[in-house]
Structures are given as structure tokens and as C-alpha cells.
Amino acid sequence: MIAIIDYDAGNIKSVEKALKFLGEEVEITRDPETILHADGVILPGVGSFGDAMEKLHRYGLVDVIHSCVEKKLPFLGICLGLQLMFESSEESPGVEGLGLLKGRIVKIPAEHGLKVPHMGWNNLSFPGKRGRLFESLPDHPYVYFVHSYYLQAEEEGIVTATTEYGVKIHASVEKDNLFACQFHPEKSSDVGLSMLKAFVAVTKEHRFNS
Fold first, then answer.
1. Among 79, 147, 174, 181, which one carries the catalytic annotation?
2. pLDDT tens figures, 127-164
3. Which of 5, 33, 92, 111 has the most CB atoms in a 10 Å sphere around its CB?
4. pTM to 2 decimals?
């Protein structure tokens, strides 16, 4: 079973629908025991960084998420979920993120005639060894973005995909059991479904080896 963390953020149902389409058992929950006994955990979301962190604290989910990481559960952050996994965001000065990975979230500059928020399809580049979520994909696949802020990861080695939108955007990262993507795989057609299927495979491998 894959747990989708429920903290009143948007876009949770579309992630559930995509996983059910793949034939997976899914539960939207904020129950600590359910989350910690899942095969894998997904933190989706759209909205503001500060509001999301307030809700994660209010529902007692910050400690639960850190426990997931300590247990080495496969963990996937999507869109706002990626941003929350890092240390801070220019969107909400003074608000600490989950700090699971090192880096900061910064505003996309409104220049070069590009609209902010960045909404639409962009292709990905793979800067080095492909992450596990991208192994079956062709070069430069297109995925769907909706965001005004983007990741600058401190560790270049964790970046598995980038895209260009006036600036170079760290679009996806992977480190140990942690995965995250700024774009929406659940809205990215066959490419996104392939990525979610790859994440499911990671969860099953983890369960087999546990």
C-alpha cells in the first residue's frame, strides 16, 4: 500500500487516481501508523510553502515524515511536496522546511518574456546518471509544470533532471530513499505514469528486502 499524506493540500486526488489506474492500493491519510507501515509514501501538493508547513505541524506530520526517512521508506515529493522537503523558500521568509535535503526554493524571475507562474509542458534533460524514476524514459521527455518557485539544490549530485525556463530549474532529485519532482507526473500522460510505475517498483523492492 502507498500512503498519500493528507494535509489539506490540493492535487491529492489526481495522484490517487493515477496510482489506482496503475492497479495500486492507495490510502489518503494523516494517520501516523498507516503512513509508517506503508510500502511507500507520497507528499503531493499545490499552494504556499508557509501555509503547507503550518498544516504539517498542526497535524503532527513533520515528525512522522522524518520517521519515514529514518525507516528508509521510499518517499516521493511532488510539486509543493518537493519544495517542502528542502530547507527554506523565498515565498515564506523565516519558515523552515522539512530539511530532508539541502537547498532553497527561489522565485522564478519575470524576465525574457516568460510568464510566471510557469504553466505548461517542458522537456527534461538528464545531467548525469539517470535516476531510478527515469530509467525507462527516452531522452528529453515532456512533463507538465505549474509553479512560480523553483529548486536550487545545494548538492548537484542529487539532481536527476533539469529544465530551462529563463533559468535552469532543478526539476527532479533523488537521494537514497528520497525522490522528488517539481512537475506533476500524475498530469504528464504516459511519461508521468511511467515514473509513478517506477516509484511503485522501488516500494516493492524495498518491501521485499525489508
1. 79
2. 987 899 999 999 999 999 999 999 999 999 999 999 99
3. 5
4. 0.96
